[in-house]
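Issue: copy button drops trailing tokens. Both records pasted manually instead:
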Amino acid sequence: MKGPSRRARGPKQTPRNARIAQRRADERGSPITFGEPGRTPKARKEPLHLPHVVIVGGGFGGLYAAKALRHAPVRITLLDRKNHHLFQPLLYQVATAGLNPAEIAAPIRRVLRDQRNVRVLLAEVTGIDPKERTVTSSAGTFGYDYLIVATGASHSYFGHEEWAAMAPGLKSLEDALEIRRRVLLAFEKAECCAPSQEERAAWLTFVIVGGGPTGVELAGTLAEVAHHTVANDFRMIDPTAARIVLVEGIDRVLPTYSTLLSARAERQLQRLGVEVRTNARVTGIDAQGVQIGEERIAAKTVLWAAGVKASPLGQALGAPLDRAGRVKVSPDLSVPGHPEIFVVGDLATLEQDGSPVPGLAPAAIQEARHTAKNIVRSIQGEERRPFRYLDKGTLATIGRNAAVADLGRLELSGFVAWLAWLLIHVFFLIGFRNRLLVLFDWAFSYLTYERSARLITGDCPKAAPTEPAPRR
């Protein structure tokens, strides 16, 4: 009886074949292990004596810092409590049913899968010890030679944390899906579960607190949803009668833009049917509505876009903080007294020409790339360079064919600004597939006023249906 063929047995394991196999394995690279307790490091091209860079956060700052270190003589560990990178500027589109979550997010592992010097871990960081140079997380404790903290910011309710349950903010996919659920459910509740005209009006009243870019975008898009997308979908209510109220505490919306652009943005909002309230401070929020000074607005849906506070991890760095909890970094973006620690993105604050660097995605990307270069300079024994933000302009969309753009000496509004906003946001999306899907969804929505992600998650209305008089 014949034994297995040479093909089945495989090549003869001579010393020469073993050396060839080992060389090929080294060329392909073996799995990364960075010396965790109880593990034996495996051989690879990036030996363990290379400087270890730990990056906390997979947003714009963390992700672009890792990518900028692609060819650097370092080994990288990126920690994030989410497995995906989120394109936050389009988060409001998910909240208003214009886009699906997967179209503005991408798995961090997929984005960095071809970068051999980085390891991605799904873990929540719970502490940082600058003296011991360690980061403590749910995946264990990691030592570092350089640390980049890019954990961003969360909602700030200005000392009224009890408002959070009634007025969700917009910082994550979970926030966006909750807002989408509340908005779409409000129309359903008004249709089936409102026994009086007053109750129905409360369900069809939407209050957005905060007149910055997020608030303006939410208000304008919600007006389009009510006046066009769902206008003909109900039988007992008239969605076009929905009341959209935008509340801003100072004298104009979009306060970071010029007075001229702010005025244009307000006019465009009003043309969409949004009720803009400036110099109006919210003093109370409950399940039945909003208190603005002496005025009471009955509203079942309140959305928060008024303030942000920095990630609490900034407090662990032992650095000076501003009132919002952001770390006051040195000109090279390092923490004073700890040149091996860098802070980028919304968690950092740095003044330039008398004004703080804005908490925008382009600023976070520039800071991340600059930090990566400074780390390489430090490794090579060169002097670090101070960060200089290059302001390429800011844009905010309001609705269909309506936007404002501050491009330095050039200020745009209307259709041209809206087109520029669309093209720039598509360009910065991660992944060709996402760009293609977003372009298709936007084109479809532009031609039909339809929104492709009108799904309600969670419990349905449980109140007994009523029989209000049909609308005329």
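Record 2 (pasted manually too):
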Amino acid sequence: MANGAAGMETELQKQKGILKWIETAGNKLPHPFMLFVILCGVLMVVSAILSAMNLSVIHPGKGEAVAVKNLLSVEGIHWILTSMLKNFVEFPALGLVLAMTLGIGLAEKVGLLTTVLRKMMSHVPTAIVSYAVVFVGVLGNLASDAAMVIIPPLGGLVFLAMGRHPIAGFAAGMAGVSSGFTANLFIAGTDALLSGISTSVAQTIDPKAHVTPVDNWFFMSASVFILAFIGGWITDKVIEPRLGTFKGDTSVEFDELTPQENKALRVTGIVALIFIAILAVLVVPEGSLLRDPKTGDFLTSPFLKGIIPIILLFFVTISFVYGKVMGLIKTSKDMPHYMSEAIKDMSGFIVLAFTAAQFIAFFNWSNIGILMAVHGADFMKSIGLTGLPIVIGFTLFTGICSLFITSGSALWAILAPVFMPMLMLLDYSPAFIQVAYRIADSATNTISPVNPYLPLILAFYQKYNKNAGMGTIFATMTPYAIVFLVVWIIQMAIWYFLDLPVGPGVYPR
């Protein structure tokens, strides 16, 4: 028994050593702003070389030849100059982050978030906080990308309030939101998006094949609880011990609420319930205002497509009410003042977002990502794997591809036409093949070097650790990415061998 404990301790020490090496090596990289500048330059040279080699592939979805485009050509230079501002303005994370900051930042500046957390802390047992943060993070994908802006920072504040390291709380939230984003207890937009692609590809083999948004529901619902437990354990046993005791100046005091704070929270809660009730009237009944006007469907409704503005309006509304009751918002100038202060805190993110946007746009325009995905898929086919190993191999390959292509639907549109027919011919159901794709695409999100939220993540890290760099992020999140992927593969194997349904009436084979 003692030998077993000693062996486990030795293994943990080795892991800490590896993570320390990752952090040290990563932090030797240039500042992220300059790193993205350098990567853009490297990408331009690589695109020129690959283009000169006349490399091209047949796009599996479109059936058209796609060649690598030279960023240093006349066409490439023209595109860079004419698209630079567009790349920045249309950067996926930019508008979302700034819009959410207006609402959440207002809630933070008037003290609403702190008050809610203080109230929560008196009821949440310390022992389950890590698990609860990951659990909420996993469910957060219902709010799409907005969850990344909301949940990890709140996780950091919860940990800070409990005297724990805020980066550990942020990491727990981010692991749930990002590495666990494809799992949920509810049917989300991801289910509808991927199932549509799967159906169109599957029908090239079987015209009667159809993958519905609920075909992965059982598997993904079970995943929520499994990932919450694993993520909480990693936070408590690996991440926080490695971070040590937080010694920063920032702190959150969660003492007893004053009568005025209780009154403000009570009134705000009533307004929040009224807001949600009105929203339910506009969404739930068939033919309601925020349903899809053509099909009446919820999954393709303006509600889900406009979830970010709705969340923004929700936070602005309840923050205004709380600030008004607390006497913090007295004139028309007060609310925009608090919002402006919140946006000032995001200045570092805006600067980093400019170069990050250029790099991701360069990568997409040059078609290098598609080239990597298709040739990698061809290699998987050439080695002739059969049985469950080929599904696992496909999952691992997807995990590598998702490091460079962060759009889940775009990557699936590339890989599905290659792997779906091949695996269907081996008698795997399209829904099970989709599961194999989703778990890998999700797990490695937190360690993707082209993650559009890296600037935001780094800004939060540096709030509590001024010396934090890209290496700090990767070292912190790597355990989640690896363990989530391994556990998910084991879960997939169990589903396969026990022939458990992945969804209502849908089995692996």
